[in-house]
Amino acid sequence: MDPQSVPRGFLRFYVLSLLSRSPEAGYSIMRTIEETTDGAWRPGPGTVYPLLRGMVDESLVRPKDSAGREGSVAYSITEKGKKALEEMQQGLLSAVRRERAMIRMFADLLPANVFAQLFVRRHRDTFEILQQKVPGISPAERESSLKQLRILLESQLESIDSQLSPKDRRAR
User: Fold this and answer.
1) What DSSP string runs through 108-153?
2) Interatomic CA distance for residues 154 and 150, integer angstroms
3) Parallel/antiparallel/unpaired status of strands 61-65 and 24-25
4) What is the mean pLDDT of residues 97-121?
5) 28, burial (CB in 10 Å: exposed 0-12, middle 13-18, buried 19+)
């Protein structure tokens, strides 16, 4: 992944999100990003450490000595950082709405068979991420969300079954 393809400010947003879960050192932040992107992106020390120093200067995060490696510093998010993260999350919701429009444009640009392959891969990836996220949802919200998802998937399955030949239809 070309670092230039990552939207400006995204790393800052992602680091705040990581630190909202638990304190992290710069090196572990780089490793987490590399693992999350399956090695496609690993911002280097020349990017991560200046970003962390700037976030300390802005009082978004605070350093604390790590009980691990000598000279290692872990960073934790501050209340100001939590508020900034919430604002960024609201902005991300707006970006997700714009993504829907972009998907429709990609569908127009790509041949149907290529778009279908892209859709299947994206659906698989999205479902994998959803499975990781579901345990973090409150029980009431989880129940409601999963019921809505079930209705949506059943409807989609009916549509898919109607387009398959009778011998290829999923046995129910």
Assistant:
1) HHS-HHHHHHHHHHHHHHHHHHHHHHGGGS-HHHHHHHHHHHHHHH
2) 6
3) unpaired
4) 89
5) middle
From first CA to last CA, the distance across the chain in angstroms is 41
Please give the structure tokens belonging to residue 59: 């009082």
**Residue written as token pair 């000279």:** 71
105: DSSP letter: H
Mean pLDDT of the chain: 87
Question: Which residue type does 28 have?
Answer: S
Q: Quote the tokens at residue 93.
A: 């919701």
At the top level of CATH, which class does the domain 3-83 belong to? Answer: mainly alpha
Q: What is the pLDDT of residues 42-79, one digit of tens each?
A: 889 999 999 999 999 999 999 986 555 556 799 999 99
DSSP 9-54: THHHHHHHHHHHHS-EEHHHHHHHHHHHTTTS----HHHHHHHHHH
Q: Tell me 3's DSSP state.
A: G
Can you read off the two tokens belonging to residue 97?
Answer: 């709405």
Cα 97 to Cα 90: distance, rounded to the nearest angstrom: 11
